UniProtKB/TrEMBL annotation:
Record's protein name: DUF3995 domain-containing protein
TM regions (residue ranges): 20-39, 59-83, 95-117, 137-157
Annotated keywords: Membrane, Transmembrane, Transmembrane helix
InterPro entries per the UniProt record, alphabetical: DUF3995 (IPR025058)
A Pfam short name: DUF3995
Domain of life, per lineage: Bacteria
């Protein structure tokens, strides 16, 4: 509570880790949406060699769905640090941010053993196929980064509300 007795939902939340994590999570969502739009429009950069969305209907549908979901994640992240976010109940925003953090982190966890093997020298980059390189070095680290950013943003939002 502040001096007037109203809840401090957004007082100072844009400063420090709280702010950069939420804005970073928003940027993560925008970039993720942009990449999926690029792929849906026929772009191939960033895809493993030989992968084509238009010959894989399931992947094409996932890419199309990823665009509005990513833009929703962007809006969620921004709602944590902007006054306009107050129209959505704080608990719902917190639940969404923690849920996004958990989903993205869990999505990336299967590649942690590969990262550990690389760090310890048990595996080398030459041991990976093209698709494994894509997943291990680009795709899953991107999800892990999103999970960390949304987790920090959710934590900052929680702390600012106390």
């Amino acid at each position: 509570m502040n001096a007037t007795g109203t809840a401090r939902l957004h007082d100072g939340i844009g400063r420090g880790v709280r702010g950069w994590a939420a804005y970073g999570a928003a940027a993560w969502g925008l970039l993720f949406a942009a990449v999926h739009v690029y792929w849906v429009l026929g772009g191939r950069w960033g895809l493993p060699a030989g992968m084509d969305l238009f010959s894989n209907t399931a992947l094409l549908v996932i890419d199309i769905i990823a665009v509005p979901v990513s833009l929703g994640a962007t809006a969620l992240a921004l709602s944590l640090v902007n006054a306009w976010g107050r129209w959505v109940p704080a608990r719902l925003r917190a639940l969404g941010a923690w849920g996004a953090a958990a989903l993205m982190t869990v999505h990336a966890l299967p590649t942690v053993p590969d990262w550990a093997a690389l760090a310890t020298g048990t595996r080398t980059t030459g041991d990976f196929t093209g698709n494994e390189r894509f997943v291990t070095f680009l795709y899953e680290p991107w999800f892990m980064a999103g999970g960390v950013l949304f987790g920090l943003a959710a934590f900052g939002f929680h702390r600012a509300r106390r």
